[in-house]
Amino acid sequence: PKIWYIMSIWIFTAAAQKTYFTKVHGLPNITPLVNSVQETPEPIPTTVKGTIPTWIHGSLLRNGPGKFEFGNQHYNHWFDGMALMHRFQIEDGQVTYRSRFLCSDSYTQNSERNRIIVSEFGTLALPDPCKNFFQRFLSRFEMPKPTDNASVNFVKYKGDYYVSTETNCMHRVDPNTLESKQKVDWSKFIAVNGATAHPHFDPDGTAYNMGNSYRNKGAFYNIIRVPPERDGPEDTLEGAKILCSIAPLDKSKPSYYHSFGMSENYVVFIEQPIKMDLFKIVTGRLRGKSLNEGVYWDPNQETIFHLIDKQTGKEMPVKYYTKALSTFHQINAFEQDGFLMLDMCCSDDGQSINNFLIQNLRQSGEALDEMYNTMGRPYPRRFVLPLNITSETPLEQNLNTRPDSTATAVCRTKNQVFCTFEDLHGEDLKDYGGLEFPQINYARYNTKPYRYYYGCGFRHLVGDSLIKMDLESKKFKVWRQPDLYPSEPVFILSPNAEEEDDGVILSVIITPVKVQNKMITLYNIYQCIFCLNPFILFSLAEVPVNIPYGFHGVFNSSA
């Protein structure tokens, strides 16, 4: 049987302008999903109902914000919350749970002073009240130090697990105890000021990532390569290299990016019109503004796809353009018959990143409905990029000759191709609010033609359903229950699997309502789902502690 086990989440929010994308009414309040919780540093048992496949051995590791205030000071943005790591250990059909706050410098300093000392994406730390007026005034001219609050994802380099955000600092952690072992700074190894929390991997373990650098001549986007080998037990990012540097369209206003695409031979960078005004960011402390105040959406600018050869490190001379769109997560990318297929979840509106304010997530009634309805929905789309562009390639003619594909690619000049997408879904996906947190059978089908992808439906500000999409039919299967909010699905391949979708999907499913008449504001359910038609509950493990909604995670099969 083909099984799906479930776990993970992430989301986007609305546009400031009053453009209504949907007409949803009566959304339930989800405040408990974004409240602070206590850590559970020692393993606790769960109550298993049903049967968890005994061949699953390992741990589901998840990351996300878990503390939203220190003393009487509160964070403004969902991304600002202190990193809380989670571990669901699965062994012999049983599950234990533990969690631990990351002992970052940010968390430690904030805890010691019982106030917010380190600025985050949407929160500017106030001057120390113990300083005199002149000292507080001068502190506004100091450059803020980047946070090491690595709350976005678990990533793996050279066999070690790290928790990562998008600054230059990661933390190496013990995947069994969740203890923080070492702070690792990208800038000590290569000239970058940060890196994404979504690296890609070649089959041999070589890792690729992207990070910005800020120089006298402005900003640059950098493709990073990290070798799989380690020279010793203390080795971290030694051997990392910048494969390629790309100049932004405007070096003073580079694009924000959360991830990137990768095929067998190319890294694909999407330069989207979510822009970072470096002057506003650098002067933010002086003006009393947080970093997110310098991030904005420019709908008048086209999106550009850059292709970088992984072997030579050279950027391809042809650039591919499309209309303004925003993307946070790619699904897959692969090459076939002279084309590169780039599949990703994207929206026609890019203001969502600044709408994930905690006050927005905690709204209720009409205000919550309006927040949701004015957000652009993310949908899975495919772009078909022709690779063999020469001086003989005809202009103003659709170069996409793939059968049954509605995407287009038209040469405007010898080095510019304008593309339109095809939908990787049917119209009925709109009833589920689009799809985000996409996942595939990465181990076998990353950079290859594939048939299935998984994700969360978003008929709320966070994921409220689990979806399995069949690319051949563009039909999907759904698991959805009232008041249950699943996280990003993580696919695990079954032993001796022959079919692409023969495996399980892990997802942490939580609820903001009381369950089983227990006086618990937030009761969490870790569920295993068996897929027939539609998703049918297969087994679950109930966790008797509060868990907030998180971002991303991985399965550690070696635990």
TrEMBL record:
GO terms for cellular component: mitochondrion. GO terms for biological process: carotene catabolic process; retinal metabolic process. It holds the Pfam family RPE65. The keyword Mitochondrion applies. Binds 1 Fe(2+) ion per subunit. Its EC number is 1.13.11.71. It is found in: Mitochondrion. PANTHER family: BETA-CAROTENE DIOXYGENASE, CAROTENOID-CLEAVING DIOXYGENASE, MITOCHONDRIAL. Belongs to the carotenoid oxygenase family. This is Carotenoid-cleaving dioxygenase, mitochondrial. It comes from Sinocyclocheilus anshuiensis. The lineage of its organism: Eukaryota, Metazoa, Chordata, Craniata, Vertebrata.
